[in-house]
Structure formats: C-alpha cells, structure tokens
Batch of 3 targets.
Target 1
Amino acid sequence: MVPEIIIDDYNYDLPDEKIAKYPLSHRDSSKLLKYIDGNVSGHTFTDLPSILPDGAFMVFNDTKVVPARLHFQRPTGAHIEIFCLEPIMPEEYVTMFEVTDRCRWKCIVGNVKRWKNDTLSLYNPLEDESIKEMGLCADLIERQGEASIVEFSWSNGAPFSKVLELCGSVPIPPYLNRDTEDIDLERYQTLYARFRGSVAAPTAGLHFTDAVLENIKSKGITVNTVCLHVGAGTFLPVKSSRVAEHTMHREPFVVTLAFLKGLLERTGKVIAVGTTSVRTLESLYYVGVGCIETGQPCDVDQWAPYSRDYEYTTEESLSALISYMESNGLSEIQLGTRIIIVPGFRFRVVDVLVTNFHQPKSTLLLLISAFVGGDWKRIYDHALANDFRFLSYGDSSVLFRRG
C-alpha cells in the first residue's frame, strides 16, 4: 500500500544564509553531527573514523559528475541553455562518451519555447578556436513533457566526453544562485569519482580526504563502491501535497559480483556514504526478489517496497542475485531504480548513514526521517541552532538507524 504522507509535514525554515554557497578550504574541516540512540552531538569530520563501528562494510558511490550544462545560440541571437539528463542514443553511458559524431540525450532546455526547428550553434563568446573547430550543434528532436530529446552533432572526430569537457560546465545545484566557478571543477567532485554519468554530485562524499579514508581503513573497515548516476531529479522538491503523487526518475546503477559477495559475507554493519548509496543498496533486495520469483532481475519500481509483505531474508535475496550472475557469467550487473524511501520503509541492508543536510520538502528528507524513526526535526533543529552549513557544500552528519 502506498503510504499516505503529506509533504508539508517535512518542511522547515531554511534561511538563505544557512546554505553553503562555496566549499570550505579543506574538505574534512566541516562540522559533523552524530545521531545515535536518539542522542545528538557535534563533532568535526575528521572525528568520523573514531565514531564508525570497527569491522564495518562501508559503501561509496564512485560516479563522476560530467559538465552537462551547455549554452547555445539561435541564429536570432537568443540564448538557449541545455542540461543533459540521460543518454538516449546510445543508451549506455560508456558507449555514449565514446561516440565521435552525433548522439541524443534527454535534456532540460531553458527557453525551449523560443527554440523552433532551427539548428543551434554553441555559444562561444571568446571565439575559442578549438570550440570553433569542433562545430558543436544541437537539434530539437521532440518534446516529452518537461524534458526534450536533443541531438548533438560535431565534426572534429572527438569523443563526446571531450566535447563536454571542452564545451560544457559543471551543473552545480540551482539553489546556490551563482554561476559555475573554477573551484567547482575540483570541489564538486569526490576524490574517488571514477565513472562518468552524474549531473549532480553524491555530496556526502565531498568531505572525504585521503587521510580520513586511511584512518577508516585502519579500523578494519572495508571500503567498497557501487555506481549510481545521479539525475537532476535530486534537485526537485516534492510539488504535490501528497507524496503518493510524486514521480521518481529512473537512475541507472552498476554493482559487481565481487561487491555482492562481499556484502553477503560481511560480519559487521553496513555504512552507506550518501543517500544514493542507500538507494542502491536497498534496491538490491528487490532485484534479488525478482531473481527468486521470476528468475530474472529487473528495474526497481518506485513503490515496490510498499506493495506487499516480502518474506525473503536479505541473505536469500542477495544469494539469488549472485546465483543469477554466476549462472550467466556476469561480473557486473546494470539496472535502474526509481525507489522512494519514505517513513514506513523497512531497511534491509543499511545500518549507518553519512549524509549532508537536505532541502525542505524533498524526497531526501523523507529518506532521513525513515532512517531515524521520524526524529529528523530534532536533528535539523540542532544543526540550525548550532550554525551547521546546509545542502551540497554544507556540513555532514553520521546517523545510526533507529527501529
């Protein structure tokens, strides 16, 4: 049954001055809020290794943010901003970034009403010769609700990864109310980012430094990775009054067979770095259920966790997914999830969460509430009263699950 949740119950006053507009000079100098057994306390991020349980299984999202915001110009002079969301042709990210002449993306287009059937040229106010040689153009193929399908074409034979690197800008969150700056090229990316595809950073990971990671490993905590490419939906507040009417966007994720075996065989607690890691880990249970019941893994639907009672244990589910991959000779599996985690959700995998402070009336705040047994307001009141910095470039928290 879809939970009856009113989004106004997950609202709070977030003054603009509490939103961190820029990162701190050092990644690990941010504040850290600890929540455990209903108690809240303040620390610094360098304290995190001493707070985490020994021998845990810690999971990071190693997706990499791509410079997915492009600015074009109509022959009339009108400017059109195109924000790439997800690849359409080809569909696979790895293949997409290797194409050398044309591709199609689902995009958000600013001023789309002013774009008729004309071909757009990349806006190049500094007359950069390398950009001129690339000859990047954009054609509007079709509109799909709030999104559009856009075909990009270029003529110098460069892979599309190079096209974006040269022509695009890092899509920092709109609530920063500023243009992308040089500092964002480095700091709106985790140190361990590997696989291109996200249009938003998994921001819980922005605090980690090599020193913090080494101190974590020294406690016998294993460091593991999944890859979920973060979509622009992460920026979107819930606009409908009832959460049941909110639609989650599909986000692709990849996990390896070696990772799944490690997760199944772990003896310690599971620590997720960021809500994207949580959504990936909890989605795995339902992927495994699909293997048990149909013999086939599939994407995870938004409301699947609430549709019925599931009798399978986490171990049974993960074992079924592992067995499917071994039987089919797969070293990794690529799927998608639309899972929404709201109060009433039964966590099957994650015990501890490292995360930033999220927007009012957002699906991420609903996830936090579900994780801490509804105690989110006290946590956020403490953070606001003690000058914690909020949102993507803000401070961090480590939350131990209740219930």
Note: The first helix runs from residue 48 to 51.
Target 2
Amino acid sequence: MNIEIPKKFKPIINNAHQVALSVFRPISRKYDRAEHEYPKELDMLASVLDGFNEGDPESSAGAAQTGKGKVKDDGSVKNGANMSTCLGALELCYGDVGFLLAMPRQGLGNAAIAAVANDEQLKRFEGKWAAMAITEPGCGSDSGAIRTTAIKDGDHYILNGEKIYVTSGERADCVVVWATLDPKVGRAAIKSFVVEWGTPGMELARLEHKLGIRASDTAAINFSDCRVPAENLLGTPEIDTKKGFGGVMETFDNTRPLVACFALGCARASLERTRELLKEAVKLDYARPVDNCSAVEAELYRMEADWEAAYWLAMKAAWMADNKQANSLEASISKAKAGRVGNAITLKCVELAGSIGFTEDDLLEKWARDSKILDIFEGTQQIQKLIIARRLLGLTSKELK
C-alpha cells in the first residue's frame, strides 16, 4: 500500500473542503437549533454531487458509491470508489456531520444497495435516496437478534416489525430494511429488503430528538403486514447456513471505514480550531522532545498522533475494499479506533478551549456532541472489539460472545 493519496482524488478533497467551509459551517448552528427542519441548501449541493458522480462515478465525494463497484480483478492496484468516498466524506464532516448524513441520495442504504444488489436492482434503484433500517427496540448492536419478519407470500414478502434510529428515515425515498425469513434459523435467515415510502403498511412512528447530528432526521418506522415485491430482496433469497450472515454484513465492510472518516473529519475540525484559539499562548515546536513541553502542548501532540494513526487505518480498510481484499477485520479496527479517538479529541478540545469551548459562541461544543454518535452507530466500540477478537482468534460468534 502506497500511503500517498492519489493525485486524481485531490480535486474531490479540495471541492469537499470548500463545501465544508463555505456551505456547511455558515448554516451549521442554524440547523442544530432547528432540529427536524430540512436544510434546503443541500438540494443544490446534492445536484452538484450528482454531476460529479455522473461524470466520474469512481470519484464521488458522497456516500453512495461504496460497495462492489465495477473493479476488474486483473491483478493491478486500484484506488477507487471506497477511498474517494472516504476522503470526500472526511472533508465534508470537517464542516458538519449532520449535513452529510442529510444529503439527498447519499444515504447508508445506498451503500447497502451498492454492496449487495444485482445489476437489475442497481439500475432500478439508481437515483433513489435510500436509508438503512437495522436497529430495533430489543436489538441494538447485535444485528443477529433482529426480530422483524419477512414471510414469503407469492410474489411478495410480508414485513412485520419496528425499526428505530433510522438515519434519514423520513426524508429518504426508500428504506433498506433488515428482516429475518425464519427467526429459528438465526443470522443466516436475515435478508435486506428495499421498501419504498408509500408502500401500504409502512408508517412513520416518530422523529427522535438527539444529542447531536440534529440536521439529520432520525426516524422510528413501523411495518404492519407491509407487502414488498420479492424482486426488492437484495442478494439471494436462499437461506445458506454455511455462509451465514456474510451477505448482508458485506455492507458494513464498506461503511465502517466511511463512518471512521466521519469521526476523523469532525475531530480534525476540533483540533485545528483549538490550535487556532491557543496560538498566542502555545507555541508548538515539533523538534522539541515531548517531555520538555507544556502539558497543553503534550495533549495536542498526543491527539495529533492518535488522529494520524486512525486516519491511516481507515485508508487501509478503504484501499482493501477497492482491491477486493477481505477487510472485515480492518474495517472494524478502523471504526473502533476512529470512533474512540474522534470522541476523545472533540471532548478534550472543549476542555482546552475553556469557556469558549463550552458555549454556543463556537462550534467546538457542537462537534463534541456530534462525535458521540460516530462511536456508536455502525457498531459500537464494544461490538467492534468483539468482531476484531473473533477475526484474530479465528472464532465464530457462537464460540466468542
């Protein structure tokens, strides 16, 4: 792996950085206070991103291009959609995480479709904004405990259950719903279905009030005898107990490095703002040994080192995905590291900035609130460590719980 970022991605990074500074940050506080109000400014930006995707789908700055893509396995090294998406997302979250999550047609459900859908489904759902519905009231980090059912009935599946914490659940065109074909079989029976809004039996229960990412709507959705066309099932309808949960979990191998980059963008914004606030009192000197500097300098150096480590772990996981290498271990490592580091950095920056960091006069306190979810969704810190341990020890989920 070459640790130099490919030149072809520089325009994406620069454009996303400018969007973060000129579009996101000026309206960030407005929509933080006006929770559930749709940021209409994002419509124009989404159209621009669509133009980027149309011109070069391998270089999207949004979140819709993760997944298997069209990479040819010819033995050459690829720097493709996963890495470009991660780099673009990092820059956009340097402005506002909630706005990226609220971006039309850039939902995590789109990543699920890209990872699992066949060619016909990819074409049929092209241009759709897809949310992702996994979590249930009795099922949080353990996706294998899903109880929403999908019963085959002719050319349809009948879905029954409740989903909570669905990011962009109300605003999206459709929702990728995880449900089990047979609760007795376990994880192997869990499949994902694309359910479009307007389908009878699909009902918005409520919108959540949240600690952070308030610009993004987070919905609870009920499914009551909801009839979904069988052709909307992503992947194979057969229950393969040998393959187990592998099919639907492919989505996380692509999205966990992406969420890691969400955390990295937010953390970098906090770090840079803190250095700016302290520049008169703290003179950073990287040539001086860390044990000869002030406590504040030492904290900044430590945070910078942690950020750098998390950054390259995320880049490695994204690079592996682009090159069709199994990256479940690396994806979980990157998410665990970046989620923890991102939250720790934003909170420490609030502390170092004193009263400025604790008030709404600055965005530091908002970034600290926003960062917490990035250590939770797409698998909590504890779940990531469990996955990492299983991969390293070669144990199954039954053998190591």
Note: The chain is about 45% helix and 15% strand.
Target 3
Amino acid sequence: MKEAKASSPVLKLNYKRTLLIGFAFFGILLLWQVYDSWCPTFLTDIFARRMYNLSSAELKAGDPDKILNVQWIVGIIMACDNLAALILLPIFGSLSDRTKSPIGKRMPYILAGTMVSALAFPFIPIFFHRNQIAGMVAMMAIVLIFMMIYRNPAVSLMPDITPKPLRAKANGLINIMGYLGGAFATVLGIFLKLSDYINVQDSARKLWIIEVPFLVASVLMVISALVLFFTVRENKLAAEMKDEMDAGEQLAAIENPIDDNAPMSPANRRMLFAILGAEFLWFMADNAIGTYIGNYVIYYLNSASSATMLLTIIGGVASVFGFATAGMIADKIGRKWTISCGLAVTVLALVVMCFVTPTAKITGANGEHAFPTLLFAVWAIKGFGMALVHNCSFPMVVELCSNQKIGKFTGFYYAASMSAQTVTPVLLGLVFKATLAWRALPVYAAILFAFSCAVFTLLVKNIKAKKIANIHGLEAIEGD
C-alpha cells in the first residue's frame, strides 16, 4: 500500500465488512416488504367485510366505493404503528449511543428487536384468517414496536465504523443488501398470490397462502441478525477504526466543524432542518405509494396481486442500479444535486402514472384484467430516482454530528420519515373517501414529491464532498 500524504489521508471502504453490516438492512427490508405488501389489504378486507357483512369476493364484484370508504380506517391503523415508531426511534437511538456492553452499543437492541418481531410476525395472518381484528392489530403493533427498537441501532451501525466521506458509498452497498432481503418477499408474493386468497369465498380460503411469506420473513430475519452478530464485532472495530474516524471528521463536507462542547452552528442547523423538511415530504409521497399500491392493483386495476410483486422486482432492480451508482454520481456533482435529480426523476415517473387506467383485456381465472405495462416503466424510473435520494440523504444528516451522537441524529432522520408515514396514510385515506377515486394516489404522490424537490433544492446549501484518496481493488476487500 502506498504511503498517504499527510495532507490527504487515505481512507478505506472495507467492502466485505460493509456488506456484512448490510445484513441488518436485509432483515429490515425483508420484513417491511411483507408487511407493506400484505397488511393494508388484510385491513381493507377485514374491515370492509365487517362493515358491509359481505364476503371478499362479493365486495370486489359489487360496489367498489365500499372498498374506498374503508381506506381511511386502514390509514389510521397504519398511522398508529408509525406514531409509536416516531416516539420510539429517537429514544432508542439516544439510548444506544450511551449503551456499553461486551457485545457493543447497538447489538443488544438489534438482537432483542429481531427475536421478538420474528416471533410475533407469523401471527398476523393467522389472526386475519380467523377474522380476529383485535389480535391482528395487536400483533402488528408488537412487530412495529420491536422493529423500532431494532431499526435505529441497526442503521447507526454503518456510520459508527465508516468515515464520513465514505458513507454515501457504504450506504449504497447496505441498501443493496436490503433490497436483496425485499426480493425474497417479492418472489414469494409472485407464487403465493394474495389475490388468490382475497378473491375467493371465505370458506375456500387457504391459510398457507398468506402464512408462508410471514414465516419465511421471520426465519430469514433471525438468520440475518445472527450473521451480523457473529461477523461484526462492534467494540473491536471501534478501537481499530479510531484514527480513520478522526480523519473522516476532518474531511466532513459541512460548513462548520462539529464540536460536541458547543451548540450546533446556525448554518448546520438550517441545513439539518431543510434536509428533514424535504425528507418529510418525500416520505409522505413514497409511503402513500407503498401503503396503497397493493389495493390500487387489486381494486382499481383489477389485476392479480402478483403484478404488485413484479413491480417491486423491477423497482428493486432499478434501485440496486441507483444505489450502485449514486456514490459515484455524488462524487461528481455533490450529494445535494444527486438528491435533487433523483426527486425530479421520481416526479416525472409519478406524473406518467397519473394517466394509467385499467386495461380492458381479461386474463385471470378470477376475471382479473391484464396489467398496464406502462407501470413497469414508471416503477423502474421511480426506483432509480429514489435510490439516489435515499443513498445520499442519510449520510448528509449524520455528517452534521460527531461520532458520539450518530444514534441521536439517526433518530432525527427517522423521526422525520415516521412522522410523514404517520400522517400520510390517514390523509390519503380521507382523500380517497372524498374523491372516491383511486387515481388520486399518483396525483397526491406527484404533488408531494414536487414540493419536496423544491424545498430541498432551494433551501439545502450545496456543499460538495472534498476529494479524498480511496483504496480500491483487492486492498479494499481485505479482512479486518
């Protein structure tokens, strides 16, 4: 290895270790993909059947307004879980910052959150199948609460042991690992179609169709947490990385240096608020799409639920490409303009989605319509655009704190996202109730993405990351 110049320290992104840390994201996105793909439809089905005393098949074949009329209830249930997350994420972020244990400061929360969530998760479809609303909602709440105990410390683990200038690239790698986790759930959804369960008479429903994805998600979550535990030694790495982390602090792409003993500078505070404000808006838009796309496909496009999973795969592949290239793009144009371009591209995709309508061609055995192919292109563009956004936004937030407050600032990041996800399901549910139109979904999301792009571009100061000397090739993949 060549000796680094004193004025330009050589910082190494250890790809092997970063990918191992990515197993935390693998578990997060795996569970989230199953949860977001199945639970809103579970809630829609069970509340609509209770409210109108009809079977699911009768509801779908009858007045579609009945389905739209219960979306505000679905939104409230989904929002209540996010409200708990809004409270818990900052708390457990700060707690993990101050935790000292033989296995590290993040790992106790990761292990506890994983195990309880994995135990409770398979009971959600069981209670739904038995038509027990209280039990289903209680299991959803337990899963979400313990995932919040898990999520902040798991996300904080990467910046804990990655110098600041390398975090955008590291964030891309661990997000790719996360999307691999989501891909497991997506593939299951193609072969175990939720619409095959929803579109039949209640007496003909088979529990295993909806139970298998939840069981697989739980098993893989536990495996991913154990891989993380046995391969990433927090305390050892923190000691070994001290000099590199100190060098990263000196190269941070911020206007004013960070000082734990002084208040946050006005310039850094303005930047933090602007990022979090824009983040709030883009998560309102993105969560609206994620929460209701399954119902949009089943009840508006009248297509098979497997089409939603194909959308997810296409969006995921595009996202992986986005995560793989976002770090390089940010090196060229800076993190701010990478995010602004990603948001602009996403707005374009959602504007196109506003003009998508159900097709006339019937292809499914249950009278399902062919899926509009234009949506596949929309999802690819959206997936790439949002990968650019997510890849650079979190590193920009933790750039504004010292290594001693990463959990706290991770809590700020997730407080903004979870508050958005608390508001948006209820707000969009009320929009559906007022308009009785599923086409309100892409319009709502496009408007919010556009506002987010404007806020971020106009209010976030563009501070381009300084050039640093990075290690490449086999040296970057070497073990600890």
Note: The domain at 12-474 is CATH 1.20.1250.20 (Growth Hormone; Chain: A;).
